[in-house]
Prior knowledge:
alpha/beta; Rossmann fold; 18 helices; binds 6-O-phosphono-alpha-D-glucopyranose
Amino acid sequence: MCGIVGYTGGRQAAxxxxxxxxxLEYRGYDSAGIAxxxxxxxxxxxxxxxxxxxxxxxxxxxxxxxxxxxxxxTRWATHGEPSENNAHPHCNDEKTVVAVHNGIIxxxxxxxxxxxxxxxTFYSDTDTEVATKLxxxxxxxxxxxxxxISEFAxxxxxxxxxxxxxxxxxxxxxxxxxxxxxVIGYTDGGAxxxxxxxxxxxxxxxxxxxxxxxxxxLNANGVxxxxxxxxxxxxxxxxxxxxxxxxxxxxxxxxxIKEIHEQPDVxxxxxxxxxxxxxxxxxxxxxxxxxxxxIDSIIITGCGSAYHVGIVAQYVIEDLARIPVRVEIASxxxxxxxxxxxxxxxxxxxxxxxxxxxxxALRDMKERGIKTVAVVNVVGxxxxxxxxxxxxxxxxxxxxxxxxKAYSAQLIAMYLIALKFASxxxxxxxxxxDSLINELVSLPDKISRVLENKSEVQKFASEMVDKKDVFxxxxxxxxxxxxxxxxxxxxxxxxHSEAYAAGELKHGTISLIENGTLVMGILTQSELIEKTVSNxxxxxxxxxxxxxxxxxxxxxxxxxxxxxxxxxxxDEHFSASIAVIVMQLFxxxxxxxxxxxxxxxxxxxxxxTVE
Length: 611
Ligand code: G6P
């Protein structure tokens, strides 16, 4: 989704802004633009379709643009095609009010009509031009920037992170947000704003999260916050404990492969954080043991890979804790006419903590009085702040659009929730519970072993590089692994793939199997292996090329199946954590071999803040 960066202070703004935008490239975008202004000078706006490097070339990495105050933007098109004309910043006719925006102004059409009746004309198809001209309208009416911004908020519906410069106010940026992320930072060198922390981490680790309907006023001397009544408010800053290097490639060719290799550490950090002296501490759920004991079912929701974590968790929690679990895609869940008893626990899983549908699902449940817990990676994000309790995954900044380490950390958080419920409900023997804790502690080493064998996966990927269709099949947790494996593959390699519950393929989809179609079987659940092998055989008899990913020691597999690296043994409840690593590597190597932009796959965004 769109990325915003702003800077005002004593230094040339454009290079800082372009550098920050580069750090937000992972969010996904199709055009970029920047506006800068020197004190007493003209507003300069440069925009370009395509990659940020086009904008950097046009401005010599910003050096050509003088000015100590500016805002920049990478746009992920919603209203209007990707083009220079639709790119942000947008401005009024006089170029005295200039703005960048992330989100969607839902009532942009009536607002536009109203502005047109008042003599405004429009040069782009965007809702952002409408937002900018709405601010301009109120600025002209009240001659006061804070008032103009708060009137904008009172009249605009939808979601926005909006940053505005007024040419009458040298060296100042005004910003407001509602349901779209925006962080503010300040150091002696000046004030910064951005859609996400990595953009400004190089300059400051002291970050202010602005809440919905809060206004920030930035200038070289600091940042002041206001509510919609324009009363000044005090805000606490948060110290970010990632260092700037965590958001850099550090010698790796892509963020994705770097993040894949960070998984042993990420899992270790997440386990260690919640396991103190061998004892599980989930006090951050903000629910007492008594409250947790009263819960009679769990509903898990999320989008994309976060939803896939929920599918794994459904099997794990139901089996270990014997409590009913339902998992549903947030964009469906939020529109359902739920039948609730009030004794449910809703768990929202989200790396970014900003996914619009997940946030809406959370709010809906809160309004109905249901207890909510978030499993989130980004500290201070909307979902983290609004849920009753939050378990933070310790994945650090995840830059690659295709998630790897955040998925793995989310799995850990969900296993821990399963263990917590199991211990409260006394569904496991003490010995088995302890062995599961030990298994979690041993996961990082086992994953490191999988990573050491990555060349096997690379070789397999090179053999499969021309495949047009791939099917992943498995049963139980293996099916849950298939779903994530398939998404990883298609999102970055652009090879069509589908995940099927192994028993379901023959009910229609098997008609797609042709000579050479790759069918990959995931075989980590010992009770289900024979059944899945039969299903693989069914596809093989129709011409499929069958490859399998199985746990070591599984020697009874048909000799003609192509075997991918054997997975280290782990308690089968946790096998997704091991198997997924191979599948992440497989997708990664295929994407590289096919010459794709691994970290920024086409059409995708890292953080989906629109519905
Ligand atoms: C996007 C990303 C996916 C991610 C999903 C949910 O589609 O590309 O990788 O799984 O959003 O994001 P969240 O931040 O809520 O986990």
